[in-house]
Structure formats: structure tokens, C-alpha cells
Design goal:
111 residues; mainly alpha; 52% helix
């Protein structure tokens, strides 16, 4: 799995400018690398192509905020009708694990 980790670190540096020297398995895409929206969509597409990962079970809204104009969200934020749900983290360790299994959301050995 070290080879996959190194390939991921190189990809992260190439696609985001985030130094591969700073990448660890605990590095988070949104919180640490600061990619979101269209940038993360493009990154994950390239990731799925490079590592042949089936992303059909991936739910973007669980991990990232949507881009663009969302009038309902703006109205809710103005009138405090609720808080944004906490988003789940995507770590490099997760990317590595799913690169091994070739399917987002599966564990190694699961088909």
C-alpha cells in the first residue's frame, strides 16, 4: 500500500499544490488541503480514473458543500433555521483504502 500512498501524495501535490511532504494518511481533503466544490469534483474524477475506483456509492453532499446559488440555504442562514450538518472527512487513508478495493465505501476484500 506504500506505493498507492506515494502515488496519492504525488497526485495531491500535482492537482492541488499541497506539498507531498506534508501529506500523511490523516490529511483531510477539505480541512487540510482546502479543496471543495468543482475543484474536489475534478480531483475525485482524476482519482477514480487513476486508481480505477468505482465512485457510484459516493455521496458528495456528505463530505462537501455544494457550489452555486442556494436560495433556501441563504434564507435558512439569515433566519437561523438550523445549522449546517457536520460534513464527514475524507482522509488520504480513505483514498488509499478505496484505491485498493477499487470501490468507494467498500472495505478491502469486500465485493
Amino acid at each position: 500500500m506504500m506505493d498507492i500512498f506515494n502515488r496519492l501524495a504525488n497526485m495531491i501535490e500535482t492537482e492541488t499544490g499541497y506539498s507531498k511532504q506534508k501529506v500523511s494518511r490523516e490529511t483531510r481533503l477539505y480541512q487540510d488541503i482546502r479543496i471543495d466544490g468543482d475543484d474536489v469534483e475534478s480531483f475525485l474524477y482524476k482519482y477514480s480514473e487513476l486508481f480505477d475506483v468505482d465512485m457510484s456509492r459516493f455521496e458528495f453532499d456528505c463530505y462537501f458543500n455544494s457550489e452555486g446559488f442556494d436560495s433556501i440555504a441563504i434564507i435558512k442562514s439569515i433566519f437561523c433555521f438550523g445549522r449546517r450538518p457536520k460534513l464527514d472527512d475524507i482522509t488520504v487513508e480513505m483514498l488509499e483504502r478505496y484505491a485498493v478495493s477499487h470501490k468507494w465505501g467498500s472495505e478491502v476484500g469486500e465485493s
